[in-house]
Predict the 3D structure of the following.
Amino acid sequence: MFTGLKRINKKWLGAIITILLTSLLVIILRLSGVLQLLEWKAIDFFFLHRLPESSDARIVLVNISESDINSLKEYPLSDEVFANLLEKIKQQKPRVIGLDIFEIFPSLQSTRNQKKINKLTLTY
């Protein structure tokens, strides 16, 4: 029984040593940063050649562009404008409304209209 085991060990010893040395070499190269550029190129290749993702009709993005700001003739946009926009969006009964607003100069009427915006957005 043990003679067969010794024969298998001798048979696979070269393969096991090769696997361990190759693994050790790859780990050393990976930790030293030598493979970093190759990894980035591979990731770029896979991202460029992946299948296009289908858009989900349930998700709607509302963007306020420069032409919208020019037509409103108001900058920064007042909280009243945002409140009116949120009311129109709320009429469609969405599950979630997410806002990404960067406001440098708060408007003077912020406190009055902020209550209206909070009422529209902070309901659960």
The radius of gyration is 31 Å. The chain is about 60% helix and 0% strand.
